[in-house]
Write a structure and sequence with these properties.
This protein is of the alpha/beta class. It has 13 helices and ten strands. α1 crosses α11.
Length: 273
């Protein structure tokens, strides 16, 4: 495979929901996905640890020849992206770029709400960073943002327990907590790329009239716009329509779970960061 692929990174499987939409909208490009499953989840980890892990992953992508890396992980986007963009890129790869998933979502989320009240469901790391509140305010200063951390959701999803009745308590609890913070919320953003796998259960507990927004299509459209506006980057990205997968964890386990997130069979390679 030509390793001038677009890199897509996540702490585990969630980024595959983003890659799926990116590949659907931009099928002509090659993609290289890497999940840091051996060190997942990132949500409870410190800013410094997430930054160090994410920088290691970005450097790995650059070593493979990727000219552009998408952090398809909200926690990594919240805790590491800005530092990498501002402090590290110029030193390690000035001609390459790293993008996240928070800003593209913040740029449009206000357009979904009629009441001006938006809820964000995310990991502890994403919520505690305040990134969504800050970014949404830049584009929609009139929007009121309420957040709720859902620390059990990613472990439930990654252990394939999310569809079982035992998960209902944790899903309902956090939705109720969020809506109790602001009864006027009419739009809920899934601020974690794992959460689309909970859509069925979310629909049971979220009241009618409240729209639930996933990130995949938003990020894919934003990437398409970015590549159109930056032909100097787009020209470095290989076009063969191929996708390659790697994990820092067990490949058989990754392939089994990844197929659920990606919607088709996945065959991964193993790596150690």
């Amino acid at each position: 495979m030509n390793r001038s692929s677009i890199g897509v990174f996540d702490s585990g499987y969630g980024g595959l929901t983003v890659l799926k939409e990116i590949a659907a909208q931009l099928p002509q490009y090659d993609y290289l996905y890497m999940g840091d499953n051996a060190r997942a989840p990132y949500g409870p980890r410190s800013f410094q640890q997430v930054y160090e892990y994410t920088l290691e992953a970005v450097q790995w992508f650059f070593e493979q020849g990727c000219p552009l890396v998408i952090l398809a992980c909200n926690t990594a986007s919240a805790k590491a992206l800005r530092t990498i963009q501002q402090n590290d890129l110029e030193k390690i790869a000035p001609g390459k770029r790293v993008l996240g998933v928070i800003r593209p979502t913040a740029e449009v989320i206000g357009n979904y709400s009629k009441t001006g009240h938006v809820g964000v469901l995310g990991t502890k790391g994403t919520v505690s960073s305040g990134s969504y509140t800050l970014e949404i305010e830049k584009f929609f200063p009139h929007i009121k943002v309420s957040q709720e951390a859902c620390p059990m959701w990613v472990p439930l999803i990654e252990s394939n327990e999310h569809q079982k009745p035992g998960a209902d308590y944790f899903v309902k609890q956090h939705i109720n907590n969020l809506l109790a913070k602001d009864r006027d919320i009419d739009t809920i953003l899934l601020g974690c790329t794992h959460y689309p796998l909970l859509m069925k259960k979310l629909s049971w507990f979220i009241p009618g009239g409240v729209e639930v927004v996933e990130q995949g299509k938003i990020v894919a459209k934003s990437l398409a716009d970015y590549l159109e506006r930056h032909p100097e980057i787009a020209g470095k990205c290989s076009k063969g329509g191929k996708i390659e997968f790697f994990t820092t964890g067990d490949t058989a386990d990754f392939d089994e779970h990844a197929a659920i997130f990606f919607g088709r069979p996945v065959k991964s390679g193993q790596l150690a960061l």
